Amino acid sequence: MRTLLPLALMAVFALSALPAQAETWTFEDQYTHWSGWGTHRENRKDVIGVPDFTHGTATVVDNTLQEVNFFFTADKFEDSYNSLTTGDLFVNTDNDKAWNYLVRLNNDFTADVYNFEVGYTDKFFKYINGRSDGDYRDNHPAWGNVWGQEALYSGTWSGMPEFPGAGNVGEISIAGLNIDFDQLTLSYTVSCANDIMAADTFSKTPIPGAVWLLGSGLLGLIGLRRRNRS
Predict the structure, then answer these.
(1) Kind and range of the H or E element at 16?
(2) CA distance 197 to 199
(3) Secondary structure tally for the chain: helices H, strands E
(4) Rounded distance, CA 117 to CA 161, Å?
(5) Gap between the Cα atoms of 84 and 61, Å rounded
(6) Residue of 78, 107, 162, 218 with fewest CB within 10 Å of its CB?
(7) Which residues, other chains included, contact 39 with Cβ-Cβ below 8 Å and sequence gap of 6+?
(8) Between 209 and 163, the higher pLDDT residue
(9) Is 161 helix (H, G, I), strand (E, B) or coil?
(10) Using an 8 Å Cβ cutoff, are 222 and 1 in contact?
C-alpha cells in the first residue's frame, strides 16, 4: 500500500502534465450589434455593404486564447472594400459585460495587446466609433481608446486581405495572443462597422475526465488492498 499511493499520485500528475493540445472552436455570425448599443435603423441590419463576416475560429491552448480567425465574403462594392481599415479585437475573459483586453492591429502587422477594463455600454471617451458617409453603422464601436497606455506585449496579424471577389472567402488572422480566460467573448469589426463579428461565450475546458478516472481507480485499489489486508 505504501508504494501504491505515491504511484497513484504520480500517475495523476503525469497525465495532467501532458503537453497541452490545441483546440479549435468555431463560431458563426450571430450578432448585428453590441449589447446596449440600441436598435436604430443601422443596428437592425446584419450586414451593410461589405464585408459580410460569415464565421470565425478561436484556437485555445491550455485555456489561453492563442489565435482568432475571421472569415468573410465581399461579393460586390469593391471600391468600398478597398477603403476599409481594420478595427480592434475586443476580448472579455470572465463574462461580466465588460471587455478586459483590446488588441490593436497595426499597419506593420503587429498586434498589440492592452489592458482595457471597459463596460460594453461605457461610451464616454472609451470607444472610437466606426465612421462612413452614407447608410452605415456609424455610431458603433470599432476601436477602443488606449492613448497613453503601453502595450502588454505584441502578437501578429495577417493584414486586411485583398478584395476576395465574388464567391471567394477572405480571412483575417490574429495570432500570438496568449490571453488566459474563464469564459471567452470576442468582438471585431472593420472601420465602418459594416458587420459586427462576435463569439460568445466559450468556457474553460475542465481537466480531462480520464485523469480523475485513473486517479480514483488507483485510489480505489489502494482502499481495496487495505481492506483485504485487514
Answers:
(1) helix 4-16
(2) 7
(3) 3, 12
(4) 30
(5) 32
(6) 107
(7) 33
(8) 163
(9) coil
(10) yes
